[in-house]
Write a structure and sequence with these properties.
The chain has 439 residues and is an all-alpha fold. The protein contains 20 helices and no strands. The protein is 66% helix and 0% strand. The radius of gyration is 23 Å and the shape is globular. The N terminus is likely disordered.
Length: 439
């Protein structure tokens, strides 16, 4: 009886410790963003910044990628004038709260440690921050697409859910076409595996997959075709000038979100290669080796989510091989995002990790063996991790969670080691902001 009582008390202390640490992580990752919001600093954000101007892309210069959100904002502003920065800050807070709620529920159901959620490779860099732009909205829509797809694929014959799938998918691509790479390639592979599971030949399975996803591919092709140019970008910016001038007079230079429309693929690749891989300051190719650490880290951290058992609930067994298959597919499918489309590691790596978690949670109990020909490689990789005392240690996992991604933006070691910046200077910065806010 005494041992049982002592064990129960120990468990209660572990729960209390876990929630306290979770609270500290949440404060560390969100206060830096929330304090400026409470102080009203969002009212002084430059309309030309990435955080604002990318939202302003609309259809006033013709159909163009990412224009649906800006068109809705523009039409709404015509009906009832408002400062766009206020609405975007509100959307950021709402999306962050919903995303946090979804992730907590997901982690509780899977038995994963909640302490992982506010860290850099998950929500740490973009929680309650306009820096994330529409990331959380896009990831939540991806989760919804996975759930709809699961429903329609589980039924035989025609299902009205296919219409909902196509509509939500089109909205996703019109809002953020880069979401294609972490949403649809993996679904196409799963549909192919589902067709093979139903005893269709490889050729018939491939043809059926292409036909079923043809509307999605068509929308993606359309968005890529109308990516915009200097004329369209200027027309969009001119449509906002009379509105923006009320809140930030004297803006002549175009916003960065519109300027990006003038980039060609070769220039974008060269710019992102320099920023994300070799560094803008004193470019050095050896830094690519450090960048590869990011990709290895996201594989390890996502496939071993059950390595740390610090949650207030018992951990559950995880299919590490299946998660490995999912993460490997996502890493390959997102190659364009790691090269041409982005240089923000603090955004692209969470895309990969979170979308993998959503897919695993949605399809893990399905009757279809996902990518069985990849399971051999995944089994060898996971066996290697399991045999290695260092890699299977929760302390190694916690250290990598704290470090990953190595940089939150651009190439490693450009100016200051991100680990030092994050952990040695963050607390003093938070105290300074708190003191400033309270005064």
């Amino acid at each position: 009886m005494g041992r049982r009582l002592a064990s129960r008390r120990g468990t209660d202390y572990e729960k209390l410790f876990s929630w306290l640490v979770l609270l500290l992580f949440l404060l560390a990752s969100s206060l830096k963003s929330l304090i400026p919001i409470f102080k009203g600093e969002f009212l002084h954000i430059d309309y030309r910044s990435w955080e604002i101007s990318e939202w302003l892309i609309n259809y006033e210069g013709g159909f163009v990628r990412r224009g649906i959100c800006g068109e809705l904002l523009w039409q709404l502003e015509q009906w009832a004038p408002f400062d766009v920065r206020v609405l975007l800050t509100g959307l950021c807070i709402i999306a962050s709260c919903i995303m946090l709620w979804v992730m907590v529920r997901l982690f509780k159901k899977e038995g994963w440690a909640l302490l992982i959620i506010p860290t850099g490779f998950c929500l740490g860099y973009t929680l309650f921050s306009l820096f994330g732009r529409r990331d959380y909205i896009s990831l939540l829509v991806t989760f919804a697409i996975f759930l709809i797809f699961k429903q329609v694929i589980s039924s035989r014959g025609r299902h009205p859910g296919w219409l909902a799938f196509y509509i939500v998918s089109a909205l996703q691509l019109l809002m953020h076409e880069a979401a294609f790479f972490y949403t649809f390639p993996i679904l196409m592979l799963y549909f192919y595996c589902h067709a093979r599971h139903r005893q269709l030949s490889p050729v018939k399975s491939a043809v059926r997959t292409l036909v079923q996803f043809l509307p999605v591919v068509a929308v993606m092709a359309l968005v890529c075709l109308f990516k915009g140019d200097a004329h369209v970008a200027q027309a969009i910016w001119d449509s906002w000038i009379p509105i923006v001038d009320h809140y930030q007079p004297g803006l002549d230079d175009m916003g960065y979100g519109m300027v990006a429309m003038t980039w060609d693929v070769k220039w974008a690749f060269a710019g992102h290669l320099s920023s994300a891989y070799i560094g803008d300051v004193n470019p050095q190719f050896w830094r690519i080796a450090l960048v590869l650490l990011n990709l290895l880290a996201v594989y390890y951290l996502t496939t071993r989510l059950d390595c740390v058992n610090m949650g207030p609930y018992p951990s559950r067994p995880m299919n590490n091989v299946l998660m490995s298959n999912v993460v490997l597919v996502q890493l390959v499918a997102m190659t364009p995002m790691f090269t041409v489309l982005s240089c923000d590691w603090g955004r692209t790596l969470p895309y990969c990790a979170i979308s993998s978690m959503f897919f695993y949670h949605t399809f893990k109990n399905g009757p279809v063996a996902f990518m069985p020909w990849l399971s051999s490689l995944s089994s060898r990789l996971q066996s290697f991790i399991s045999r290695n005392r260092v890699l299977r240690s929760p302390y190694t996992y916690i250290l990598l969670v704290a470090l990953a991604p190595v940089p939150n933006y651009k190439a490693p070691l450009d100016h200051i080691n991100t680990f030092q910046q994050k952990f040695f200077y963050m607390l003093s910065d938070l105290f300074n902001q708190l003191a400033s806010y309270l005064s």
